[in-house]
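User: Let's play a game. I give you a shape written as tokens, and you guess the letters that built it. Ready? Here's round one.
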């Protein structure tokens, strides 16, 4: 069962969206692999393991490379600007490099030992390699764009670096929130807009920029991507508490284990009522004793039940739908082929109706 239910089924079918994602992966992966091969040993090997191209022993592997939403957006929006999809490939690769830079660092910061059903880089190769490879991927992203040597590449790089700064801002906010008793819903939305919305906004505009789109059209696509990112993160927050580990590749109650002030938690705290008050008492005790990690499964299940009873789960589901609607509405600000519009709406459907 999906995280929030169906959206607009009259658009591109689920199979059509899967085909879009796979096409983006096919076009992007060879260029991405060539870029990663520039890294000095052992960083090239470590990065290849992270991307799922090899296993821990260095043998070729067919791993789960993620959903590939960002590359698909970069290629589609190049077409929205009237350029061939291939025009967006450098942007797609650059955004994927930045995204994976953030994953490498996030896994280490959060202490996550699993990603995509395999051990994370820091667990296999050590924290130092996770930091260094992440840094190298970020530098490589800018290199891939700037070596195009065009004015459009310069415009695209400015958007990418701004998005990366906001992404890092969001990660810093997220860490800070873990040690606070209370965070407002707006503060949480601002954090998630930085941490997730900024890079999806960049992915949704960077292909168009490379294709010669005006700033106004690129801004409209960026708005679509930003709100799509907030919808994506709202669903992620639901899966971070109630997702099936067999689908998500993470532990049960993963966000509760990390004391994350995600949207369901923050919305539940703001709701008032007995369940909200009890949850607030538990989180206040956590803040006074942050090193306490002696919780058992029953404790996490109880906290998840309190969040749901207080309305945090339903509010977050509704917020995902609100952000989805705002994202889709932004597409009307740009004149693009109807087929591309439908595909972008279909991608938005896919983002908010998923189980992992």
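Assistant: Ready! My guess for every position:
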């Amino acid at each position: 069962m999906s995280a929030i239910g169906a959206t607009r089924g009259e658009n591109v079918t689920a199979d059509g969206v899967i085909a879009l994602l796979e096409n983006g992966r096919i076009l992007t992966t060879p260029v991405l692999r060539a870029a990663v091969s520039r890294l000095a040993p052992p960083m090239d090997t470590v990065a290849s393991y992270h991307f799922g191209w090899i296993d821990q022993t260095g043998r070729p592997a067919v791993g789960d490379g993620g959903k590939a939403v960002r590359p698909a957006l970069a290629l589609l929006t190049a077409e929205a600007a009237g350029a061939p999809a291939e025009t967006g490939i450098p942007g797609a690769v650059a955004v994927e490099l930045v995204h994976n830079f953030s994953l490498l660092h996030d896994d280490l910061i959060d202490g996550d030992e699993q990603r995509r059903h395999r051990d994370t880089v820091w667990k296999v190769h050590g924290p130092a390699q996770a930091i260094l490879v992440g840094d190298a991927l970020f530098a490589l992203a800018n290199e891939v764009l700037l070596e195009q040597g065009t004015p459009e590449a310069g415009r695209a790089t400015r958007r990418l670096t701004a998005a990366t700064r906001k992404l890092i801002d969001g990660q810093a906010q997220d860490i800070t929130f873990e040690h606070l008793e209370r965070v407002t819903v707006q503060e949480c939305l601002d954090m998630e807009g930085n941490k997730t919305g900024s890079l999806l906004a960049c992915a949704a505009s960077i292909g168009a920029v490379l294709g010669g789109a005006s700033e106004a059209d690129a801004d409209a696509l960026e708005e679509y991507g930003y709100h799509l990112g907030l919808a994506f993160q709202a669903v992620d927050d639901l899966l971070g508490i109630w997702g099936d580990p067999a689908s998500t590749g993470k532990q049960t109650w993963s966000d509760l284990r990390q004391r994350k002030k995600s949207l369901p938690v923050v919305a539940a705290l703001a709701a008032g009522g007995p369940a909200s008050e009890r949850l607030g008492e538990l989180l206040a005790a956590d803040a006074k004793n942050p090193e306490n990690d002696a919780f058992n499964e029953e404790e996490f299940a109880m906290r998840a039940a309190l969040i749901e009873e207080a309305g945090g789960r339903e509010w977050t589901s509704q917020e995902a739908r609100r952000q989805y609607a705002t994202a889709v509405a932004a597409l009307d600000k740009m004149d693009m082929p109807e087929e591309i519009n439908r595909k972008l709406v279909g991608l938005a459907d896919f983002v908010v109706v998923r189980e992992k």
